[in-house]
Amino acid sequence: MELKRQSKYSGNNLVYILKDGLELASVPLSEKEKKYAEKRLEDKAELIFINRLDGWIFLVVPKQDKGEEAFLEQCRKKGDEIAVRATEEKLEDLGILGNNAQAVLAVAEGVALSSYRFLNHFTDKKGKETSLKSVSLVSEQLSDADVTELSNLVKSVCQTRDLVNEPLSHMNAERLAEAFTKMGKEAGVTVDVFHMQKIESLKMGGLLAVNKGSIDPPTFTIMEWKPENPVNEKPIVLVGKGVVYDTGGMSLKPTANSMDYMKSDMAGGAAVGGAIYAAALNRLPLHVIALIPATDNRPDGNAYVPGDVITMHSGKTVEVLNTDAEGRLLLADALSYAKKFEPQLVIDAATLTGSAAVALGHYGIAGMGTAKPEVMQQLQKAGHEVYERVVEFPFWEEYGELLKSDIADLKNLGPREAGMITAGKFLENFVDYPWIHLDIAGAAFLMQPDGYRGKGATGTGVRLLYRFLKSMVG
């Protein structure tokens, strides 16, 4: 679907964004339509559908009593509802009009993200696609650059969703690296992929241990966006967990309601790849690097087992208590490797723990780390702006004590309580720079539809990280 800015929309399917009922007078409605709209407004309706013989009128009147961020989220949600109705009615185009440029962009964002479909494996796609082919944004306050930026961001989210929705049969570690390479070529991002021999030479013991049960080799992908004259002297490094499928390894997961969606365990890796892709497409003047260690985690005759001790890239030793706590092992190697870039800041994203999903559901992201409070606050602000909200959890030293091992430097699992925090404290052992850890386990993949986030892969993390990176530009 194409998003485009126009000074005037000549089609018959119009979306009007109104500040309140008083603005209804500016909408070209018949007397009958106006009376109907007034009655719906009296009933506190925020979205009004008017069906004409030659098209549709959508009146969007979001509540504004909870602040700008909540208002724009309501606009996105109304965009989702409009997209659903548009597809039901087989509409091919929409025009979105309003005096508030940000509201116009938000409604368009909701429409575009709601229109995403993952249809790669249907032999007959008829009736499954969205009918919408173009959305025109009409506002005097909008520029072509605004619409291009949104279009590129939506494209990046949808690309990320595609990666996460692909099953292991079509997206192992090598194919994931190939997908990142293709994205890099398109956007102007330099991509370097390490394969088994290089990974072994770097002694990435965490990645190699998890990969021991797989018949497919691991990969370690480095993506770099370095424009001319970036505003940052030292790079911002994004690190993403790339477990393309997680059985739990020898600590096997139960099949029902657990293993069946584990193709999504690389959602953090996909998100950081999508974020740097968006940054490059929109030419952010910021030096950004993404690191994605990738493998699947399966049981096999040579698989690593509980009780093993492994030596990580950093040289630290880890006692493995549970092979289903594998994501932190990959991330630890990547975080250790990130030191070579002397980063200004490192942010990792991972579907790391069920504890994060239990604590926050799909409404938030668990955050913690060692970066200065103002950096975390800046990230949280970005999260509220795009409604991928980050909840900061305590990072007290006592949680780290729970990872002491009797036979190695540390163990890879703490007690059940505060599991998302002890997972973060494990990772802390491998960083010596400002760092934030994001556990996106609850929000990355949905079993039921949730508005414009859809069902299945949500692309969580792309919009958050892009908005944060943009805020770093100033």
From TrEMBL:
<dbReference type="InterPro" id="IPR000819">
    <property type="entry name" value="Peptidase_M17_C"/>
</dbReference>
<keyword id="KW-0378">Hydrolase</keyword>
<keyword id="KW-0645">Protease</keyword>
<dbReference type="InterPro" id="IPR043472">
    <property type="entry name" value="Macro_dom-like"/>
</dbReference>
<keyword id="KW-0031">Aminopeptidase</keyword>
<dbReference type="InterPro" id="IPR011356">
    <property type="entry name" value="Leucine_aapep/pepB"/>
</dbReference>
<dbReference type="Pfam" id="PF00883">
    <property type="entry name" value="Peptidase_M17"/>
</dbReference>
<protein>
    <submittedName>
        <fullName>Cytosol aminopeptidase</fullName>
    </submittedName>
</protein>
<dbReference type="GO" id="GO:0070006">
    <property type="term" value="F:metalloaminopeptidase activity"/>
</dbReference>
<dbReference type="GO" id="GO:0005737">
    <property type="term" value="C:cytoplasm"/>
</dbReference>
<dbReference type="GO" id="GO:0030145">
    <property type="term" value="F:manganese ion binding"/>
</dbReference>
<keyword id="KW-0464">Manganese</keyword>
<feature type="domain" description="Cytosol aminopeptidase">
    <location>
        <begin position="322"/>
        <end position="329"/>
    </location>
</feature>
<comment type="similarity">
    <text>Belongs to the peptidase M17 family.</text>
</comment>
<dbReference type="GO" id="GO:0006508">
    <property type="term" value="P:proteolysis"/>
</dbReference>
